[in-house]
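hey so u asked for the seq, here:
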Amino acid sequence: YIFGPWQNRHCHNFSFVRRITADGGPRSFGPPREVLLKVCDLQEEENPSTLVIYENNVKLEEVYSETGGYHSAVTLGNNRVAPLIYEYDFGDCWEHKITFLKAESARAERPLVKEAVGCGPVDDSGGIKGWNAVK
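ran it, structure tokens below
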């Protein structure tokens, strides 16, 4: 399992983010950050400051392809796509940074994982503190 033996029982979302520096200039990753595009598993109320779409209504190709409808919303300098953050189980607060090495990888039916750090925690383990007590 990439993200642990999770059973998709919890809310999740994917956010393309830009880090905000102390002087207000953009950076690539880490808090505090500005959400450029949020892809949710549930319909959410509209937020005027963030572009929010339902996950069943978008494909990664629409974000990563230069001709995709959402590409310009998440593009940083040098035509780089903003970091993608996957959040799972808002109670345990699991957060993962996902990087596609090539746009073609994002368009693959089943993208392959090249590298992962750490081992995937079990569902409902209590977040970082709980997981550290279990493993």
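Residues 1 and 50 are 31 Å apart (CA to CA). The longest strand covers residues 12-20.
lmk if thats what u needed
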